[in-house]
Design a protein that fits this description.
This protein is an alpha+beta fold and about 45 residues long. About 40% of the residues lie in helices and about 20% in strands.
Amino acid sequence: MAKETNAVIVDTYAIIADLLGKAPRTAREVLDRIRTKSLRGIIHF
């Protein structure tokens, strides 16, 4: 049985790519889950 992910590490490149509209679909989906607080995001700088 697989466990659901509770948190992800977000690289600053992913945030910048999202702001510029160049993030891949999977990254956008994960960032949207963080925005809606259904997933915890930890920023790596």
